[in-house]
Amino acid sequence: MKPIMTALCIALTAPMGVQAEEDEGYNLMEEGARLFLEGLQLQMEPAIEELQGFAQEIGPEMQSFFLEMGPAFRDLMSEVEDWSAYHPPETLPNGDIILRRKTPDEEATVPESGETDL
Fold it and tell me: CA-CA distance, 98 to 91, in Å (whole number)?
């Protein structure tokens, strides 16, 4: 009778021990993730502050640019169906900006999957 009672006690307490280990493991993982994110935040803080200063400095100029160029840019976006059919914009010596269409040969050399070999 005593071995049965011992086995029963072990069976009843074993899941509790496993649950306690799982809870402790979860808490350790949670704590590790929290510490990692805090460290990341501390390292990124100077860059974020610099970016905020830059945004405040350039903000009014960007707003003015979007107000003036927004309608023209919207018209351009509605006319161009596939941007991959064009070369990157070029600025001419007189200040004009042009978009050159790729030739059929140039379009054929672009990978279909969108992946670029490095």
Answer: 7
CB 95, CB 73: distance < 8 Å: no
Q: Please state, in angstroms and rounded to a whole number, the distance separating the CA atoms of residues 118 and 110.
A: 14
59: which 2 tokens?
């903000």
Asked whether the whole model's pTM tops 0.85, one would answer no
Q: How far is CA 20 from CA 2, 40, 100, 103, in A?
A: 27, 30, 66, 67
What is the per-residue pLDDT across 9-31, written as a single tens digit (0 to 9) for each? 555 555 554 455 555 566 888 88
Q: What sign has the CA pseudo-torsion 90, 92, 95, 99?
A: negative
